[in-house]
Structure formats: C-alpha cells, structure tokens
From TrEMBL:
CDD domains: IMPase
Biological process, per Gene Ontology: inositol metabolic process; phosphatidylinositol phosphate biosynthetic process; signal transduction
Class of enzymatic activity (EC top level): hydrolase
Name of this chain's protein: Inositol-1-monophosphatase
Pfam family, one: Inositol_P
Cofactor entry: Mg(2+)
Sites where the protein binds Mg(2+): E71, D89, L91, D92, D217
Keyword line: Hydrolase, Magnesium, Metal-binding
C-alpha cells in the first residue's frame, strides 16, 4: 500500500503537536528522581516513554502496515525488510528538557527502506511544527520553507553536536571544529539534532554535521532539508545518512566545501 503522503504528513503533525502538549505540561512538574541512565551521558525519563507510547498508538492507526524504529523500545523495532517504517524520537533533547533548557522536539519520520519520505519535527518550546513529504515540499506552521542562499562557508552559521560517548576520534573532530570556527560565522551546539536539521531546512542554520548520531534523531530532519532544497549525505561521500550514524546536511551550495574540510581531517575507516 502506498500512503497519501500529504494527508498523512498533516495527520502526523497533529499527533506530534499532541505529544508536544503533553511534554510542555510536564516541564514545570518534572520529577528529577525518575530520570534513568541508559548509558554514559544518555538519559531517559518517563516523559520520553509516555510520549513514545502516544505516538506509536496514533501512528499505528494512521498507517498500520508500517513497522517501527523507536528510541525507547515501547514497541518492537522492525527489521530492514519491512517496506515502510516509522522512525520516532519522542523527545529529542532530553538533557535540555531535564535541565530546563528550551530546545527539545518531537521527531517522526516515515521511511521507505532507508529513505525518509515523510518527516515532522515539532519544536515544543517555540510551538513550531516543521513537516514535509517526498516531492511535496517542506513547511513551518504550514508556510513553505527553503534553505539559505549562503554560497561560502565564510558566510555560514553551522550547527553540530558534541559526542557524549565513544571519544575515540575527538582529535579529528576537534580539528574539523577548529577549521570551521575560523572560517564561518560561528558554530552552535543546540542539543537537539532534529531541531538543528529543521533549522537548516528553514535557513536559520546553513549546515549541520554530527557523528555517533542515531536514525531516530535525524530521519525526519533529513527529509525536511531535502524537501527545502538542501543536500544531505554521509560525511565524506554520498550514501545513507539515516542509518550510517553520520550526517552532513547543508543548503547544497556549501556542501562540497564542507566535505573538503572533513576529508582533510577525517578518515573513512573511522568506526562510528
């Protein structure tokens, strides 16, 4: 079955807003004692899990033929042979949320194989809903969005994420950061990959890069950037940026320039 992506994206956006409303309600009453550590610097709360349950239940009704790839495991993850899969991060930016910082988002993508064909990122604090669908464009609160027109890295504002585990390649990563810091308008570490990508899609950021990143963090945002006219690849080459654990997203105009810097400092054999 081929879904109606336009109608489905609107329904998914409504569902993400509902999950976002629940998250927003929890900000003032959040119970710090219920934080669970999944791994080094990797936190989860009951808010993440309850939000994911809400999303899974709603998405199953919208498109029951699709499987799931979820962060919190509230439903069994489907294997790669499943034609369509929902890829969900119920609260991207959990650490920000826990510490009372304003940037966190609900991220939902629908992928056909490894290619996202629908994406919604709802940034809760600013009540901004980004949505898009394959071949149908990208929108912010239902207004069309496009990537920026910066043609040189010297004129770009760059988003990234700092590794919070697996620090094997920090020297190479810091060398890349150093070069970008010297040849851009600045670097921002927002703490929510989904939001970073949505901001590239609407032109607030000109590019975003990160490694050791998960599919549920980036799948929806990758669709948004592509539908807004940008380009998304792996760091050093074209290929699957959703499940490869490395993502480079730009307005397209500075993509080759950024890859040149990365190829100078990063080795293709590095394990993510």
């Amino acid at each position: 079955m081929t879904p109606d992506l336009l109608q489905l994206s609107q329904s998914v956006a409504d569902l993400c807003r509902q999950a976002g409303a629940f998250i927003r309600e929890q900000v003032s009453s959040f119970d710090q004692s219920k934080i669970v550590t999944k791994g080094l610097h990797d936190l989860v709360s009951y808010v993440d899990k309850e939000s994911e349950k809400m999303l899974v239940e709603g998405l199953q009704k919208l498109f029951p033929e699709a499987g799931f790839v979820t962060e919190e495991g509230t439903v069994a993850n489907s294997d790669e042979s499943t034609e369509y899969r929902w890829i969900i991060d119920p609260l991207d930016g959990t650490t920000n949320f826990i510490h009372g910082l304003p940037c966190f988002a609900v991220s939902v993508a629908l992928a056909r194989g490894v290619v996202p064909v629908l994406g919604v990122v709802y940034e809760v604090s600013r009540d901004e809903c980004f949505r898009g669908a394959e071949g149908l464009g990208a929108f912010l609160n239902d207004k069309p969005i496009r990537v920026s027109t910066a043609a040189s890295t010297e004129d770009t504002l760059i988003a990234t994420g700092l590794p919070f585990y697996k620090f094997d390649h920090m020297d190479a990563y810091m060398a890349i950061l150093k070069e970008y810091a010297q040849h851009s308008r600045g670097i921002r570490r927002w703490g929510s990959a989904a939001t970073d990508l949505a901001y590239v899609a609407c032109g607030r950021f000109d590019s975003y890069f990160e490694f050791n990143i998960n599919a549920y963090d980036v799948a929806a945002g990758i669709l948004l950037v592509r539908e807004a006219g940008g380009r998304v690849t792996q760091w050093l080459k074209d290929g699957d940026p959703v499940f490869s654990r490395e993502t480079l997203a730009t307005n397209g105009l500075v993509h080759d320039q950024m890859q040149t810097v990365m190829k100078k400092h990063w080795q293709e054999g590095f394990q993510m």
